[in-house]
Specification:
16 helices; globular; mainly alpha
Length: 296
Amino acid sequence: MTSTTPSSPAPALHPRAGRRCHTVLNATHSSHYFSPDVTRELAGLGITHSAAVNFAVRAAALGAVGAGTVAATFYNYKYELVAAHVPRIWDTASPADVLAARLRGVDATLRRLLGDDAVASPEMAEAARLALRATEACSRAARPLYSAHADLPVPEEPHLAYWHAATLLREHRGDGHLTVLLGAGLDGLEAMVTHTATGKGTAPKWVLATRGWSQQEWDAAVERLRGRGLLDGEGELTEAGVALRREVEAETDRLDRAPYEHLGVAGVERLTELGTAFIGTALEAGAFPADLVGKG
């Protein structure tokens, strides 16, 4: 008679492991929003306003949608800013042309920021395989931006496949995050104000310059949050505010856990390691404005 030894259970994923991995992947994805290469490609299509470029490259996967869809899925942009450019951008260039231009811009961006050696490295191919494996467990339900991007073909070149997978994972988490913000009673601008107050969010000058909100509207949001006891007189998070932001991130983690559980502890650790190295190189190459994040 042959005895068998029960297999050991798989090691549990750390509660914040998915968030840490997402952070480096999201930074890689987001670098194209600040890329002169993407701006140049969109200008070649006739789209030149910075806000129009932003709306076009992120919304194109949804098709030729109107301002309402973009404002709803982007969440923290003022509707009037969106409506000033959408759907008029689709008269200038089709979503398919925008997506092709975006990918050309991303290709140029990653080559410029990381270098051709890194782009062609075995590590890049490994990162792409791991990130794509994680996306296998993403869910389409109630995730419009993720689901739209999931319909796009996976690029053949590893660095573009890695960026594509990072985009899927970013939008998957982002769509879930909006559900949590709604449940927390934070509108788009209030969400930005509270995130900025943590010291880890977009600086106010960038919010006002890119999201369409005025200083008066920012100040009004601050007052609403003070009325709820979430900000103090100096605009800092109160204990209740810190607790709410903590709950928001924890619930977002829960809704976004499946891809990283699917990848497993070792896979998540390795993808985080590889992604950290790539984005570190990109940051040194000036991927983002120096004053993008902070309270000032």
